[in-house]
Design brief:
eight-stranded parallel beta sheet; alpha/beta; TIM Barrel
Length: 279
């Protein structure tokens, strides 16, 4: 007899979460250097809740070569794409080694590339050409918009224009920069709270917000975005130890989103709350 799972015993309070494989409701995990055992533990526990893993910054260049290939194979054996952080591509571009970068990414087994200019200057034409070349080599491309340093902040009008250009050039999704800290960049104030004006401007001027991935490393940011946009908002830079906690937010298994579900859909829940008795 098949054993029932918790989701059958207690259906999720928030309904409508898309199952994998999915193009909406993505959870992108930021991996800053997990070892093979830790990676395997993460995948065994939470692969169903992870859609993509980013090997952050330029960290892939610091892995022992065989361990990197083994790690990428392990991740992708669970049906989850892995890709190197955009900073590594930026280093290759400023060194004139972009084609070498693609060769190495292909040799390692990556199937996805992040195209960004968070630190270096890059003209729109160069950016579009890089996306095109990645696509020609068979890589799926996700791009990232927004600068990492507050002094280089991109005006909102330019940012949404870049989103449109990247999608037209062939990017599957566009990441809104949030950094590892989630503070003082694009939609976030210095304290990590959301800049409502910036967020609303982006939403109003991007034709298909379902193709945006909001980097949201902090729990309060994940919660706010889920409450605003629902369980199928795309979230990035989720830390490995927070994957299940983030998924719990999405489906109403944490207090704040459970409270919202109770308030929005009281008809789904029997009142007063009475424990069922056996027999």
């Amino acid at each position: 007899m098949r054993e029932r799972g918790w989701s059958e015993v207690c259906p999720y309070p928030v309904q409508g979460r898309r199952p994998k494989p999915r193009d909406e409701g993505l959870t992108m995990v930021i991996d800053k250097g997990l070892g093979l055992r830790a990676t395997r533990d993460l995948l065994e526990m939470a692969a169903d809740q992870i859609d993509v893993i980013k090997l952050a910054f330029g960290t892939p260049a610091l892995y022992p070569a065989e361990r990197l290939r083994e790690k990428v194979r392990l991740i992708q054996s669970y049906g989850i794409p892995a890709y190197p952080g955009g900073t590594l591509l930026e280093v290759a571009v400023v060194q004139g080694r972009f084609q070498d970068f693609l060769d190495e990414a292909e040799r390692i087994g990556f199937r996805k590339i992040e195209v960004s200019d968070g630190t270096i200057p890059m003209t729109p034409d160069v950016r579009a050409e890089i996306i095109r070349l990645c696509r020609e080599r068979g890589f799926e491309v996700v791009s990232e918009v927004g600068k990492k340093h507050p002094a280089d902040r991109v005006p909102s009008t330019n940012l949404v224009e870049q989103v449109a250009a990247d999608l037209e050039a062939g990017a599957s999704h566009v990441i809104i920069e949030g950094r590892e800290s989630g503070k003082g960049v694009v939609i976030y104030h210095e304290d990590g709270s959301i800049d409502d004006d910036e967020l609303e401007y982006i939403i109003r001027h991007v034709p298909d917000a379902s193709r945006l991935i909001w980097e949201a490393p902090l729990k309060a940011q994940q919660q706010d975005l889920i409450l605003r946009f629902g369980p199928n908002v795309n979230l990035g830079n989720v830390h490995p130890e927070d994957v299940l906690a983030c998924e719990a937010l999405r489906v109403g298994l944490r207090g704040d989103t459970l409270r919202a579900a109770l308030l929005r859909h009281p008809e789904r829940f029997p009142f007063p709350y009475v424990l069922e008795r056996e027999g």
